[in-house]
Amino acid sequence: MSSSNDFEELPGECFICMEECNTQTKCQCNLYVHEKCLEEFKEKDGRDTCSVCKQKYPSPKCTYPCKKTLKIIMIYFKIIIAVTMFYLISGLLGEFIFSAINHSELQIQPPWTLEYIIMALCVMTLLVFLNSIVKKYSI
Predict the structure, then answer these.
(1) Are 57 and 26 in contact (CB under 8 A)?
(2) Scanning 3, 36, 58, 133, which has the fewest C-beta atoms within 10 Å of its C-beta?
(3) pLDDT per residue as tens digits for the range 47-58
């Protein structure tokens, strides 16, 4: 016996992962594919056209923040962290050197004081200078 739902659309199979899928590509092929599978495929393949019908894929709607924007933010964040760590370590090293030269007790200043900033800048300058000599003469 046949029911009125005999012609109901059945789910397809994702052409990438071969699992059950209800969404179709937005190109002329209309193949079944998971959006995540297609995005990973496009990222690995490096093309923005369908490998079957050669039609250009529509650009995905980018949620805020986009992946590229997020990558740029992460790069800047890592740079800020690295510079901050370099500043703090240079300041501590400067205080250590200053106390050793003056034969005085080591007194660690807060990083926002003028003495700390000057010592950090002196040590940073010295380290950059030594690095350039090492690179130039391959010591």
Answers:
(1) yes
(2) 3
(3) 777 777 878 776
